Amino acid sequence: MPYADGVSPRSPAARTASPALAWAAWPWAASAALAAFAGCAGRPSAAVSGGAPAVRASREASPAALATSPVTSTREWSWRGVNGIQVDTHHWTIRSSLRSASFTGSLPAFYEAALRNYRTGLVPLPAPPKRLETCVFGNRDEWARYTEHRLGSDAGPYLGMGRGGFTSGGEAVLYDIGPRDTLSIAAHEGWHQYSQTTFRSALPVWLEEGIACFMEGFRQPLGSPEPVFLPWRNTERYAELRSSARKGRLSELRAVLEGSPQSFLAVSRDAQLSYYAQVWALVHFLRDGEGGRYRPGLERMLDDAVRGTIGDRIRACDALDARGKRLAANAKSGIWLVTVYLDRDFDSFERAYDRFVGALLESNGWDRIMRGECPIPLPAPAPEGTP
To answer: What is the pTM of this model?
Structure first.
């Protein structure tokens, strides 16, 4: 399933709340399967004739920038007049035409740290079965030309989504929208890359997008080559959740689970931003809410997604009748997997989620958010064996 995501300028509320750059809208996910990655193959140095000055500068500066990162090889790369560098790590192939050598040099360590976060941030997960491929273009024009080349007649919605990028078949195509915003969308898209290549069963849309948002938060310690990923350090999602509540834009949980980024975007851009804030909060709730009551179910769902056994779990669930099992097996959204994995009493589950979001709305925990800490007190873990 392809995903296309973009970022919007910071809202006034986010600017007031925090000096950090904020990122907000991941606005569009197509449903049609896209062609396999093509036209971005790396070439040996001799195959690139007379690279642009910016590329030569990048080549000259990159060894020092990459010295502390997990790089296994580098070489020049080009595509239809776009010249850049290909960097391979143990788990990623990164093709970059970024004009900044230091920015290019930061990508390998960032991506490797992001992958470790995907594999440990919620539950232990396996390594991807192959290198994950990313193109990061230096500007929107290069990205747009490549998008048109790759997607053909399907490129229109992607080209119209504003600042952002897309992922399909485990490969992401991004462009420079400023260092922090680019890295934030790289972390979001990287989760889609990881899940598309590693999971045998697809997650429901609300969980797939919620985890991608959960993976966005990070800080870059001064002097460190690697970021520290902190899921609560996401000022944009926190600010949007509070803003949506003030403006009456929050949706009931059932509507969030039954919707999608496309369906909320069809209502309005603001409705979509609210959707992403709510699924971000939902994943935090599944991990930490109600004393961790729902974390085992989340772990089982992710484990079954890796193994490709979500269908088996649905068929074995005695809380669903035959019709419910058919709907659960075929739906990419909805409440069905809540019933199967998390709580047979959806109304009880919804009330608990509403309490969690209500506490977030009542908090004014910007200092804790900036430190990457939960802004509200969390209940003590439930006794072992509590359902």
So the answer is: 0.81
